[in-house]
Amino acid sequence: MTKRINKFPTLSTDISLVDTHCHLDMKTYSDDLEAVLDRAVEHGVRHTITIGIDLESSIRAIGLARKYDCLSATVGVHPHDVDEAGPDTYTALAELVDANRDLVVGYGEIGLDYFKEYSAAENQRIHFANQLSLARELRLPVVIHDREAHEDTLRIIKASGAAEFGGVMHCFSGDLQFAEQVLDLGFYISFPGVVTFKNALDLQEVAKAIPIESMLIETDGPYLAPHPMRGKRNEPVNVLYSAAHIAGLREISLDEVARQTTANATRLFRLPTIHPGEGS
């Protein structure tokens, strides 16, 4: 049984972690963002990707990445928000990318959500396909949201050709069979704090089984805080808990998980070289 963790797990001083998915532009971070980033960097989480979910949040994400060296940004329209998006939205996003190539490392969060279906399913599929095409034009890896839409998500990705520039299945929620289909696309699988939950047996099976070379780790903050922070606001430093839990599942060291997932994130998103001791 994997040992539960009651304080921040410790990385060696020459090892870094990357939180590949956090929503740092949200109001819940507005009063203490610098402290959040300092806490992450102090404990070895030296880079975080802050995610756009619509035009406004994409602009904010880029602004944060411009202000803090430990951040990069993505742009895109989340499936919950596509009913409000139109051609002008995507023109503006493309212009944002072209004007901020040094800060924007991916296109997303985009995809399908049949669980809540805040936007009509057919409209989600249309916008998803269009955004995948735009990401390919922009030569960016894609950050995919897939909730209870596995079959359509894979079908639309395959048809788009967007896998040419890589991508990640963010906040992975499928079983091992679905994970293998994702890996066949050449995509990465990203594990949120849910992997630490006692009842997340399918996700833990995936975390044990897939090649570590195909693995990323994320918070999806402020949501889905891992044990022992469950129920609290999530933040980048908490990827340490998920990484340590995965290390226990795989019976390897935390440093090994951190080293490989950081290399994976750097490769996919073409991140700047991350040096120990870098600040915010």
Automatic annotation (TrEMBL):
<comment type="similarity">
    <text>Belongs to the metallo-dependent hydrolases superfamily. TatD-type hydrolase family.</text>
</comment>
<feature type="binding site">
    <location>
        <position position="109"/>
    </location>
    <ligand>
        <name>a divalent metal cation 1</name>
    </ligand>
</feature>
<feature type="binding site">
    <location>
        <position position="220"/>
    </location>
    <ligand>
        <name>a divalent metal cation 1</name>
    </ligand>
</feature>
<keyword id="KW-0479">Metal-binding</keyword>
<dbReference type="GO" id="GO:0005829">
    <property type="term" value="C:cytosol"/>
</dbReference>
<dbReference type="Pfam" id="PF01026">
    <property type="entry name" value="TatD_DNase"/>
</dbReference>
<protein>
    <submittedName>
        <fullName>TatD DNase family protein</fullName>
    </submittedName>
</protein>
<keyword id="KW-0378">Hydrolase</keyword>
<feature type="binding site">
    <location>
        <position position="170"/>
    </location>
    <ligand>
        <name>a divalent metal cation 2</name>
    </ligand>
</feature>
<feature type="binding site">
    <location>
        <position position="145"/>
    </location>
    <ligand>
        <name>a divalent metal cation 2</name>
    </ligand>
</feature>
<dbReference type="GO" id="GO:0004536">
    <property type="term" value="F:DNA nuclease activity"/>
</dbReference>
<dbReference type="GO" id="GO:0046872">
    <property type="term" value="F:metal ion binding"/>
</dbReference>
<dbReference type="InterPro" id="IPR015991">
    <property type="entry name" value="TatD/YcfH-like"/>
</dbReference>
<dbReference type="InterPro" id="IPR032466">
    <property type="entry name" value="Metal_Hydrolase"/>
</dbReference>
<dbReference type="InterPro" id="IPR018228">
    <property type="entry name" value="DNase_TatD-rel_CS"/>
</dbReference>
<dbReference type="InterPro" id="IPR001130">
    <property type="entry name" value="TatD-like"/>
</dbReference>
<dbReference type="GO" id="GO:0016788">
    <property type="term" value="F:hydrolase activity, acting on ester bonds"/>
</dbReference>
<feature type="binding site">
    <location>
        <position position="21"/>
    </location>
    <ligand>
        <name>a divalent metal cation 1</name>
    </ligand>
</feature>
<feature type="binding site">
    <location>
        <position position="23"/>
    </location>
    <ligand>
        <name>a divalent metal cation 1</name>
    </ligand>
</feature>
